[in-house]
Design a protein that fits this description.
Rossmann fold; binds zinc ion; alpha/beta; binds D-altro-hept-2-ulose 7-phosphate; globular; 7 helices; five-stranded parallel sheet
Length: 197
Amino acid sequence: MKDLIQKVINDSISVKQSILQDEQLLATVERIVDICTESLRARGKILFAGNGGSAADAQHLAAELSGRFYIDREPLFAEALHVNTSYVTAVANDYAYDEIYARLVRAMGQPGDVLFAISTSGNSSNIIKAVEAARKIGFTVVAMTGADGGKLLPLADHLINIPSKTTPRIQEGHMLLGHLICELIEEKMFGEAASAV
Ligand SMILES: O=C(CO)[C@@H](O)[C@H](O)[C@H](O)[C@H](O)COP(=O)(O)O
Ligand SMILES: [Zn+2]
């Protein structure tokens, strides 16, 4: 048991070390922060979509923006697409599970909005369909993936691909960088030097 505990913690640390050393990935994080800030300043929306643990991550990250992260400040428009269970169950039942996010993207989305498509495999079809709908509308699409990026890879404007093939380790990487993105957006928009950036 102790061996497994140490292995899992070590694996998680290794993934995070790889992220830290990946300058291209860290530059992508900066670019995503700039794009989200620009969108929010223009009254755009930041939408998040994921399944399972990634749905939890989606609503967690949305709440950091619509609620607050560190700073007492105005709310920002951010939401996770699965949170209305009446909507999700009706659309999954009446149309298809694949349609749940794409349909809401079409209902809510406007050019300049940002969609975070969170899928550890990059292959969940409801996420792919949401991305296709978002691209048609003129969103910026940020894909948060792992492994080889899957089908999301060629569809994303910006890719956060966590260097791991293990779903929970990938999710931990998504949350690390997702938290970082929320912190940096808040700092850029509301921090002490906000008027200068
Ligand atoms: O949280 C976990 C595993 O850590 C699971 O609930 C996991 O999110 C689900 O199996 C998802 O359906 C996986 O989908 P995806 O990440 O490949 O898009
Ligand atoms: Zn999980």
